[in-house]
Amino acid sequence: MDFSAVTLWWLLAGVLVIAELLTGSFYLLMLALGAGAGALAAHAGLLGSQQVVAAAVMGGGATALWHWRRAQAPRSAPAASNPDVNLDIGQRVTVLQWEPDGSTRVQYRGAAWTARLAPQSGPPGSGEHTIVALRGNQLELAPASPHPSAPPAA
Hints:
Elements: H1 5-23, H2 27-43, H3 48-72, E1 92-95, E2 103-108, E3 111-117, E4 127-135, E5 138-143
Parallel strand pairs: 3-5
Antiparallel strand pairs: 1-4, 2-3, 4-5
């Protein structure tokens, strides 16, 4: 079977899209754009070297542009403390007492959880605490600030 240059470029673009779907690497889509540019250059009747240049410029430029755009975007919080990933972050629990090893047991969502005080949270104390992270099956707590709608304590 005799493949034309156009067919080869479109097959390469398809293989790159499939590879992106299997790996999740968005950069492969940028390279697929480059292969599409090579196919369009072949459709236009350009020579093989010009097709490769068109593919390289489009694919490389799209990859560089995507990399620059990602570098400019703000970094998200780690998954363990990101409320967009874990809906438990920001919820309140009541701590009755702390154990000598720095842990406590709290009731949360109908079950007893082991919890620890988050670093730089000050000395452990009883009362309302906010979940700031999940470390495995352990809650990380910080003292809760008063509710915005709550009246100031006298």
